[in-house]
Design brief:
Layout: H1 2-37, E1 49-58, E2 63-64, E3 71-90, E4 96-113, E5 116-120, E6 123-127, E7 133-135, E8 137-145, H2 150-153, E9 163-175, E10 179-188, E11 195-197, E12 207-209, H3 213-235, H4 237-244, H5 254-257, H6 259-313, H7 320-330, H8 349-358, H9 366-399, H10 405-409
Parallel strand pairs: 6-11, 7-12
Antiparallel strand pairs: 1-5, 1-10, 2-3, 3-4, 3-9, 5-6, 8-9, 10-11, 10-12
Length: about 450
């Protein structure tokens, strides 16, 4: 019965290891698919939700890194000291053996990060890096002996046990003006009507990387395939043992020997379909969330317009077209998809400028000025929401057309959402004076 018992142990251990490899593969694949699903947004099109951005790291008051002393927005450094020792041991028969051991031990480390701006050709967006995963660029890497100034200038005075008095200084950073790739959750800033990228507990990923999107995705995909292949090999071990080692005394057959391999492939196929379907559902819900964000801001504008109408009407003389325009704008409480019955919502800023030009005295009234500011803020929020909706809806429509995702989407009868078209929406630019590296 011992061979049979050994076979059960091998299958059990193989099942656990194959399951762990499968879980690691799917976890990496989900991240890679998330990056693939997200469209790259411009800074002027960022709104609430998961976003993907590319640009340069900018700051008004950048950091100076600890070792390289370069202007940056994030840096992390480490000092390691080399040690070696001779170890002598005696076995049960009285034989003595000697071996040499050595390695590096971290004796000091640190780092710092500050909120910074990501800039592209259309504008800037604030990045709060706390809680993000960093992929930094090595900016300093030097190994020195104790007779060199750097040894004690940037390292501790004490030595580790069995020290060889050699230290390795390494530092990684995101330099000022360096290109960065960011994937993370966006939210609205507290100080102005503009988005910011910051960590959230329910966010699936928050990554700040100096690598390009292509390299990040290829790395995730490559490691995913590695863990999948390793799990496949482990699942095939019982079948390999059966045929290679002639272990016929296992009291099993080729069919039973391949049971683990078959199960691995079946579970992987099922979980892959589950992962793709869930990612499509998540993408569809982000599209619907984007539409609801537009409706929320349109409703906010609808509630503000009666006060504007009353203010203008109280002057006693006003144009009929102004009142008609305000009435039509007030009717726009929801966004109407293209091709559907309903009003094509438009911006309010142009109409407000006409009113102010025709009635200059309005600008001197405190109430009208405050109301005007609120309406302009609402206009900017609608522009943000509209851009986000169209970006994510386009990505969702693309996913529904490509193979094999379209086959999985057919299981839920998923259909693309129409894009929105509206005119005269404006968003204020965020003005920031960045530090020039040449002056540092």
């Amino acid at each position: 019965m011992r061979p049979m018992h050994d076979a059960h142990i091998v299958v059990l251990i193989g099942s656990l290891l194959a399951a762990a490899c499968l879980w690691a593969s799917l976890r990496l694949r989900r991240r890679q698919r998330l990056l693939h699903d997200l469209p790259t947004s411009k800074t002027l099109g960022v709104f609430i939700g998961m976003v993907e951005l590319k640009g340069s790291a900018e700051s008004e008051e950048p950091l100076s890194s600890h070792l390289a002393e370069c202007p940056c927005v994030i840096y992390s450094w480490k000092v390691e000291e080399h040690w070696s020792r001779t170890v002598t041991s005696t076995d049960s028969k009285g034989r003595t053996t000697t071996r040499r051991e050595s390695g590096w031990k971290t004796v000091d480390e640190g780092g710092q990060s500050i909120p910074f701006y990501l800039r592209d050709e259309e504008g800037v967006v604030l990045i709060r890096p706390e809680g993000a995963s960093y992929e930094l660029l090595t900016v300093f890497d030097q190994t020195v002996n104790d007779n060199e100034p750097l040894y004690y200038a940037k390292g501790p005075r004490h030595a580790v046990s069995h020290s060889d008095y050699r230290r390795r200084f390494t530092e990684q950073a995101i330099r000022l003006h360096a290109p960065v790739y960011i994937v993370g959750p966006a939210r609205e800033r507290d100080d102005i009507v503009a988005p910011e990228i910051a960590a959230q507990d329910d966010a699936p990923l928050y990554l700040i990387s100096v690598r390009s999107e292509e390299r990040v995705q290829s790395s995730l995909a490559g490691w995913s395939w590695f863990w999948w292949a390793l799990g496949l090999i482990i699942a095939a071990v019982p079948l390999i043992i059966l045929f290679v080692s002639e272990a016929r005394d296992w009291q099993t057959s080729p069919e039973n020997g391949g049971l683990l391999l078959t199960g691995y492939l079946v579970v992987w196929s099922a979980t892959w379909v589950w992962m793709v379907y869930n990612s499509l559902v998540g993408l569809r819900e982000r599209v619907r969330q984007g539409a609801s964000l537009i409706d929320v801001q349109l409703k906010r504008r609808h509630d503000l317009l009666p006060a504007l109408t009353a203010t203008i009407g109280g002057l006693g003389s006003h144009e009929r077209t102004v009142q008609e325009t305000l009435a039509s704008l007030r009717a726009q409480t929801t966004a109407t998809p293209r091709g559907a019955a309903g009003p094509d919502f438009a911006g309010v800023a142009a109409q407000l400028r006409v009113v102010i030009e025709n009635y200059p005295a309005l600008t001197a009234q405190t109430g009208f000025s405050a109301l005007h500011d609120q309406l302009v803020e609402t206009e900017q929020r609608i522009a943000l929401a509209r851009a986000y909706y169209n970006d994510i809806a386009t990505q969702f429509a693309t996913r529904l057309e490509i193979v094999p995702d379209r086959w999985v989407a057919s299981l839920g009868s998923m259909k693309p959402e129409p894009l929105l078209a509206a005119a005269h929406f404006e968003r204020a630019a965020v003005n920031v004076n960045f530090t020039d590296t040449n002056r540092i």
